[in-house]
Every structure is written in C-alpha cells, then in structure tokens.
Design goal:
alpha+beta; YaeB-like fold; 25% helix; globular; DUF6235; DUF6235 family protein
Length: 110
Amino acid sequence: MAMRLQLVEGLELLEEWAESASQAERNVVYEALFAIGDGSAFLIYDIFGDPRDRSNLIVSVRPQLVLKVLVRRADSSFEIRHVGAPDDGQDHTDGDVAPAREEPSSPEGA
C-alpha cells in the first residue's frame, strides 16, 4: 500500500514558477504533485536521490523539468524544494545519480 502524503510547504515556490510556465508544463507538474501525494509517483516517474542533499528526492517530470521534494515520513507530508529545470545543469537520468528506493514503512508505534 502506498503512503499518502500531504503538501505542507513550497506553494509559494510553485506559484512563482507557474507564472512563467506554459499551461502544458503546469499540467504535468500538477499531475506529478498529485502522484507524490497519493504515493504513486514511484510507479510513474523516474525518481533520483539529490547528490547535494540526501534528504531530497528529484522527480523527473519531463526532460529539463524536475520537481525536488523533501518527504517527511514522520508526519506523512512533503514540501516542494525546487520546480523547473534541473538547478545544477546535469541530466539526472545519466546514471551518475542512483535512483531513490522507497523504504518500507514501519507499523505505527514500532
């Protein structure tokens, strides 16, 4: 069963990016955010660990369009850290970054 996550931070960043994005770009990013929220993103998108900050995940939405998010498993939430072109100029699908693995969640209280 996938973990449901609630978006708790980063809406201002998303709104700022959306002002200059095309409607098609906004649509695919919003779709990816819903997939992150309902837990299906690992089945749909290529997801990589951020080499600069291991707590972030990079979701490859389209070529040259990524979402960087921080997942907080403790409170079942996530925050947007970056949206747009890869901020380091690298192609995150070139094999230099290992794909992120979804960790099994432990039962409550364990």
